[in-house]
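Wed. Picked up where I left off yesterday with Nitroreductase. The coffee machine is broken again, so keeping this brief.
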Amino acid sequence: MSTHVQKPGWFTVNVFNRAVAWLTRRGLSVWGSRVLAVRGRKSGQWRTTPVNLLTVGGQHYLVAPRGHVQWTHNMRAAGGGELHLGRTVEEFTAVEVGDDEKVPLLRAYLKRWKAEVGVFFNGVGPDSADADLRRVAPDHPVFRITVTNRR
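Structure written out below (tokens, as returned):
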């Protein structure tokens, strides 16, 4: 597994992510945004971060554009979490997708959110060759999620 991590810049952390999370907590999804809550693998405390929920073929996915970050490590340990949109909470289980399965998912993700996350994919975009998407696949964890409860 690659240990590639693209740290977000000051603007992303202090302005963009906070604005998206604020809107999402109030029930306004920005292009599929949700607030992901997952238990910390060491502390057991809930950790939150804004994410983009990708839907392909009726299945839901979470893609980590910045690489193997804290929420991906926590997701592997916890096996699931919660997605929040306003007062709606969806509990889910998560299964990590193998690199060979990621090509169409990364293509769909980049097609929708390239303007927001394209910089983290080293020049690979939605129109790139399958081989290029497969090359960057190990750097971008993808989880297939299944909603188990909605409240």
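Quick read: The longest helix spans residues 10-25.
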